[in-house]
Amino acid sequence: MLDGTYFFECACGADEHTIRFVLNKEDEPAEIYLSIFLDPGPWWKRLGRGIKYILGYKCKYGHFGNWTMDPEDVSRLKKMITDFEIG
Fold first, then answer.
1. Residue 16: which residues within 8 A CB-CB, separation 6 or more?
2. Is the peptide bond before 29 cis (omega within 30 degrees of 0)?
3. Counting beta carbons within 10 angstroms of the beta carbon of residue 9, is it exposed (0 to 12), middle (13 to 18) or buried (19 or more)?
4. pTM of the predicted model, to two decimals?
5. What is the pLDDT of residues 49-84, one digit of tens each?
């Protein structure tokens, strides 16, 4: 049984910048699942990235996205961690 789901939206407001945490305290050890949107892009770009990855190509900028926490969500994140620790 899952014990709680917490959604955190990026401060920029973009829909695809949403992080979802799911608490599962039933299993031993307890776990937190994280799901985050990854932009799939067109299939040919994904194929190109995959081929470059297999061949060892490394982009000088890395392959990163960003997410900025809204200051109002800090207390919600603390609550989520506390709920996880107590369970």
1. 37, 39
2. yes
3. middle
4. 0.63
5. 889 889 988 877 766 677 889 999 999 999 888 888
